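INFO batch 0412 | record 1 of 1 | parsing
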Amino acid sequence: MKYLSALTFAAVIAAASSVATAQTSAGNDTPKLQCAIGYVTGVGGAAQSFRDYLATPDRDKYRFVADNPIQCKISDEGRASGCTGVTNLSREKVSVYDDVDNATIAVVARVELEHGTYPVIIVVRRQDVKCEE
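INFO prediction complete | emitting tokens
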């Protein structure tokens, strides 16, 4: 699984000249991202932590981000796994990985961790992803 994630990330980065569009799925009003590379501005994180963040009342979201920084285990090969927490992203270049549900999408982003910057699969709000043009 880790090897597949690394290969997927490498393949997406290699496709630097992808065309970006957003389409509506047939029979569904939720737009489906049809791009490989995009930019994210907003909060993203590990799946469970991100769900907890979304469930947090608006008045407490800032504190949630501050109290739950993203942390991952890093293997000897430099692969991140077992991540928890959330992080703020500001126009971070990402590769679109997979749809999670109608409101969120999984992306591979370079995230600053305690031991350096690593590519990590995180979940973000679909509306926070803008396809590269």
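INFO post-check: The helical segments are 2-14, 47-55, 61-67.
INFO record closed
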